[in-house]
Amino acid sequence: xxxxxxxxxxxxxxxxxxxxxxxxxxxxxxxxxxxxxxxxxxxxxxxxxxxxxxxxxxxxxxxxxxxxxxxxxxxxxxxxxxxxxxxxxxxxxxxxxxxxxxxxxxxxxxxxxxxxxxxxxxxxxxxxxxx
Length: 131
Prior knowledge:
This protein is α+β, with helices and mostly antiparallel strands. The chain is 32% helix and 33% strand. The protein has helices spanning 2-5, 24-34, 57-72, 90-100, and strands at residues 13-14, 17-18, 38-43, 74-86, 107-116, 121-130. The chain is globular, with a radius of gyration of 16 Å. It starts with a helix and ends with a strand.
C-alpha cells in the first residue's frame, strides 16, 4: 500500500475522519443505538453478488443489513457510497437496486459507470441517500 498511498494510512484518525478496519455490523449497530450520525459512509466490503440463485439469499440479507444500518447512521443530507459490480452484470445490479427499495428507510440513489484500470473493465458505483 505504501507505493499507492504513501504515508496517508499511518494515522487512521484525523480531525474530521476515522478509518475503521473491523467488522462493520457491531460498529454500525452501536452507532445506531447511540444515535450517532455521519455525513458519509463509504462501503468497501464487497461487490454486488453476481449469483441470483436462492441459496445466495443469505448474501443479499447480509448486504441489506449493512445497507440498512449504514443509512440509519447518515445525517439527513448524508450519503452512502459503494461499488456495484461490472457494468455488464445488469441482472445483478438490478437485484442490488431492488434491495435498496427494501430498506427500513426510503432512499434515492444515483449510479456512475467508470473505468477501473486495475479491473480492466467498466464498473458501476452507487451513491445512496435518504428521501
